[in-house]
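dude i think i finally got it to work??
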Amino acid sequence: MEKIFSRVNPDVLLVIINRFDTIADERRDLTPAEEFLQVSCFKMNKGKTFKAHKHLKQTRVTTITQESFVVMRGKIKTIVYDLDDIVIAEPILNAGDCVITLYGGHNYLGLEDGTIIYEHKTGPYCGVEKDKTYIDQGENNAI
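look at this
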């Protein structure tokens, strides 16, 4: 698991990247328990199961949208922006890899035709006007 922390505020975890080839048999929580988006991974071999369950309704308050991308096929470049909107990292993700964006900004660039992504994010979605602001991608943002 790779963690990218802010240079502006080193206590802020911006992004987590989990590589497909690091997924183990035992469940591993990828995100800290206090974050809004909870992501875990594990292998499910034949016959593996867990107790059937459903989740209880409860009121939760989220103050930011967090999201994850799972590359199903192909390859992408993840462009990670720090809290001050300056590019801090540009990791490449391959099929099976997962990127979790907690804070800061981000962009993705497809590197192969036919790349397929699953995106997961906290909700509910309230529209572009209430959900996001755009980052100037001028020359000063290069790492």
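The longest helix spans residues 128-131.
im so relieved honestly
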